[in-house]
Amino acid sequence: MSSLTTRNGILRRLCTACVLRLHPSSFCPVCFVFYAGSPPQPAKRVACSNCCSITHSHCAGDTLLTSYRCPPCKNSSFSFFPLRDNKMDKELALPLLCASKIASSSMGNAVTVAWAEADRKVREAAVARKRAREALEHLVVLTRKENGNVEELELDNGDGDGDIDIDLVRHIEDSLVKVDD
């Protein structure tokens, strides 16, 4: 089983054969070379006429003159893992390795997206905190002007981390309630 993320960021667990079937343009279906985001040059590849798989031209053989169909499209009973005597050999290991590389690439892309999203949220939170602090400072100034008290403004609670003093916020709220009464 492999974990993959879809375009909308949903994590899916798929069997190895399904990973390969759902990503036909990510590898050569004959030699199972993973393209890692860059398929062969157009002159060195053949596209399947039935699906979006891309095969190396040297792997496609003599079918270049006719419309090419990749092995999964050509044979309805095709299997990426035709077990013989229940033994794993190099021929069966290649599709397994290819599917692992596809899953790894997918998860790497998901990590990149998640980091970017987390970074964006951290920046938004910092801006929101700054705006809230500025709004509280402005409110304190207005409250003190209204009460005739224009002494120096200090919102920090004294521990040096920039947190707003909760007692000062309560005092402002109490002042606003008194003004409303």
Task: Please characterize this protein's 3D structure.
This protein is mainly α and 181 residues long. It has 2 domains: 2-118, no CATH class; 121-180, no CATH class. The chain has helices at 16-22, 57-60, 71-74, 90-147, 166-180; strands at residues 2-5, 11-14, 45-47, 54-56. A hairpin with a 6-residue loop joins strand 3 and strand 4. The longest helix has 58 residues, at 90-147. The chain is rod-shaped, with a radius of gyration of 31 Å. The mean pLDDT is 77.
Helix/strand layout:
Elements: E1 2-5, E2 11-14, H1 16-22, E3 45-47, E4 54-56, H2 57-60, H3 71-74, H4 90-147, H5 166-180
Antiparallel strand pairs: 1-2, 3-4
Helix pairs in contact: 1-4, 4-5
Mean pLDDT: 77
Q: What is the overall silhouette? A: rod-shaped
| Oligomeric state as shown | single chain
How large a portion of the residues is in β-strands, by DSSP E? 5-15%
The share of residues in helices is: 40-55%
List keywords for this structure.
5 helices, rod-shaped, 181 residues, two-stranded antiparallel ribbon, single chain, mainly alpha
